[in-house]
Each structure stands twice: as structure tokens, then as C-alpha cells.
Specification:
eight-stranded antiparallel β-sheet, six-stranded antiparallel β-sheet, 35% strand, globular, mainly beta
């Protein structure tokens, strides 16, 4: 039996570094395979910092959201096209400031092709990649707790990020290891809050292989409001969504097994307030104790976020520092 059906992960996810030019530029991924991304998440990382911008091919080019704020969807000259092996960045300063270093993380869904999904009580629009375990879902809320939406993964989602498009609201996050009953709790991607117990996000109902159940909160299901969700299910040998308990050691923290070498890593303390930290092997290709984190919920520069002693290993990652955001006791 094959360990994984994904022989080349760069078919479905890659990171890219570029320098802004203040105008427009076509940018190309350099992985083993060509990658036409459907979800792009990135930020300026140098002197000025800036918004954590999000674009996707389901909502369409130039439709920006920001993970560091509650701001509604805006039209900005950010990603102006999703190309056969990369993307074209427009002139907006949040994503293409002249001479500013930037990073983009890209994921492939279904090449921008969506379909109507009537598995739930709300008809959703889905762009799914079942091989890579990733789907982009859009829907219009009803305001009624217990409403369901189809996600198209054909498997139970392990990580879900939702954002209201048509108004200001936080980014609710579901993670299978958030608490012992993760369907009763939520985190916010735009905030450093710890886990919150509330029925109004996921209606205290675990997601299934076909649908996600929504509460009545405006952040996920306001009447007449529009939403987008980025849903992931674990694919053996390609993606992993887990948890660990810190020990506070400044040199010998936990080893977390994934079964493959991570290229992108996000960590959030769920038991208390602390920032969402993102790491990747593009900005930091070596295990030298200087892995540069970026905050999903803040506009800090890379240097503001600070370096962390985290080694990305062939079968997981090892924490080698005692900071509270990654290794609190």
C-alpha cells in the first residue's frame, strides 16, 4: 500500500519570495511541478510590514481579504491573475510595495472551476481538490443556527477558516485538536485569543464528510451575509493537523511527528492568548535556530516577529526554544 498518493507536493502547495516593484509583475513558482494557485495568502515581510492579504480564484481576482483584521472584502490591485505556474501581482502597496521583500503561500484547489453543492441546507459553491484535501467554499448565510453547508472534500475537515465577505467580522477557526470537543470551541485568526467555548460558531456539531454545521453568529451565518471558507482534511504524507503540549525548555522542546518534512507550518497556543505564527522552508531553508516567524494576526515585520528555534525535520518538527507562543510550559 502506498504511503501517499501525492508523489510531488509542489503540485498542490508552494511558497514564493519576491521583491515589490510598485507596478505590476508576473511571478513564477520554482517547485518541481507547475502550480496554478487558487488560494494565495501572503504579506510584506521587510521594513514596513503590512496587511496579511488573501486572494482566491473562487471569489475572483483583485478581491482582497486580510487575516490581520476584521475588514470586509475589498477590491484592490493585488493578485490580478492566477497563472499556469504562478500569479500576477498588481500595483497595490499592501502586496507590491516598491523594493519591499514579500512572501506568498499558494495552494491549488480546482483551477478556478466551481460547482453548486446542495449537500447542506444552504446551497454552497465549492471548488474542491480531494487529492490534496483542500476546498474553497462560498455561501450566503441564513441567520439560523444548525444550518449546514457542503464542503466537497469527501472526508471530514480537520481545519477550517471562515471569513464574512460582506461586512466586518472576525475569522473563526475550527481545528480538530483545539480542545477535546473542538466543535464546541473556536479561535479567531485575526486575534491572539485563546480558545473560546460557544455554540454560535459550529453549533456544537462536529463536521462530517459532507457538511459543516454553522451556528447563528454573524461571523459564520448572518442572514443575507456572504462568506468564504478554506477547508482542509488531512492527507497522509502531505498534510497534518495536530497538537502538542509545551514544556518551556529553551533548547529541548517537543518533537512533533508529521510523517513527512513540513514546508509550511502554523502554530497557535490554544490554551491562552498568543499569536498565530507561520513558518516556511522558503524563507528559512536551513535548521540554524533562526526560523523567522510571521504573525497571521498582526502586521509586524519578520524581524518584529522574531526568530525561533524550530527545526523542520524529515518526519516532523522540533521545538528548540521556550517562548510562550510555541513552547509555553
Amino acid at each position: 500500500m502506498a504511503y501517499t498518493t501525492i508523489d510531488d507536493p509542489s503540485q498542490y502547495h508552494q511558497s514564493d519570495l519576491y521583491t515589490g516593484n510598485g507596478s505590476s509583475q508576473s511571478l513564477t513558482f520554482d517547485g518541481n511541478s507547475d502550480l496554478q494557485p487558487d488560494w494565495i495568502w501572503g504579506c510584506l515581510r521587510d521594513e514596513n510590514g503590512g496587511a496579511r492579504f488573501v486572494f482566491d480564484s473562487s471569489r475572483g481576482t483583485t478581491k482582497r481579504l486580510k487575516t490581520d483584521t476584521t475588514t470586509e472584502e475589498q477590491t484592490r490591485s493585488g493578485v490580478t491573475s492566477f497563472d499556469s505556474d504562478g500569479y500576477t501581482m498588481g500595483s497595490h502597496a499592501d502586496s507590491n510595495l516598491n523594493n519591499e521583500l514579500a512572501v506568498v503561500w499558494g495552494w491549488k484547489a480546482n483551477g478556478g472551476t466551481t460547482s453548486s453543492n446542495s449537500s447542506g441546507s444552504i446551497t454552497s459553491t465549492v471548488q474542491a481538490n480531494t487529492t490534496a484535501g483542500f476546498s474553497i467554499v462560498t455561501w450566503t448565510g441564513t441567520g439560523s443556527g444548525g444550518a449546514t453547508i457542503g464542503h466537497g472534500l469527501g472526508a471530514v475537515p480537520h481545519w477550517m477558516i471562515v471569513k464574512k465577505r460582506s461586512g466586518t467580522d472576525s475569522w473563526p477557526v475550527y481545528h480538530q485538536n483545539n480542545t477535546s470537543a473542538p466543535e464546541t470551541d473556536y479561535l479567531h485568526l485575526d486575534e491572539n485569543i485563546g480558545s473560546v467555548d460557544s455554540v454560535d460558531r459550529w453549533n456544537d456539531t462536529a463536521p462530517t464528510s459532507t457538511v459543516v454545521t454553522l451556528g447563528d453568529a454573524g461571523a459564520v451565518n448572518g442572514g443575507g451575509a456572504t462568506y468564504v471558507g478554506y477547508f482542509f482534511t488531512e492527507i497522509k504524507g502531505y498534510s497534518k493537523f495536530g497538537g502538542y503540549t509545551g514544556n518551556g525548555s529553551s533548547s529541548d522542546g517537543p518533537f512533533v511527528y508529521t510523517g513527512f518534512k513540513p514546508s509550511w507550518l502554523i502554530i497557535k497556543k490554544s490554551s491562552a492568548s498568543d499569536h498565530w505564527k507561520i513558518y516556511d522552508n522558503k524563507r528559512d531553508p536551513f535548521n540554524d535556530g533562526n526560523l523567522n516567524g510571521l504573525k497571521a494576526n498582526d502586521t509586524d515585520t519578520e524581524s518584529d516577529a522574531g526568530t525561533r528555534g524550530i527545526d523542520l525535520l524529515s518526519n516532523g518538527f522540533k521545538i528548540r526554544e521556550g517562548d510562550g507562543d510555541t513552547n509555553g510550559t
